[in-house]
Structure formats: C-alpha cells, structure tokens
Specification:
structural constituent of ribosome; 1 helix; 4 strands; Ribosomal_bL32_bact; alpha+beta
C-alpha cells in the first residue's frame, strides 16, 4: 500500500488544491433595445428594460 515517505507541506498541499480553482469569464449579453452589455436575467442599467418591458427609469 502506498504511504507517503515525507509529510506534504501545507504550501505544497494548498498550491495543488489551488490549481483546480479557476474563475470563469462573466457571461454578458447585449440589451435588445439599446445594445449595451448587460448581465443575463437582469434589467438593463442604461435603458431600464427587462424582457422588452420598461421596468425602471432610464439613468
């Protein structure tokens, strides 16, 4: 049975675990009305529309 000969240091252990942590790029879509970039499933901050309806006042 495989047993480690030496103890793995915390730095080596943490570096190995951190290799799997990758940030994903933010998904951005264009607003159909004003063509500004907007996060999906959120009202457009520039024109205030969501799913073709006016939700908030335009800023």
């Amino acid at each position: 049975m495989g047993v480690p000969k030496k103890r793995t240091s915390s730095m080596r252990r943490d570096r190995r675990r951190a290799a799997n942590f990758k940030l994903k790029p933010v998904n951005v879509v264009k607003c159909p009305k004003c063509k500004e970039p907007v996060l999906p499933h959120r009202a457009c901050p520039s024109c205030g529309t969501y799913k073709g309806e006016q939700i908030t006042e335009a800023s």
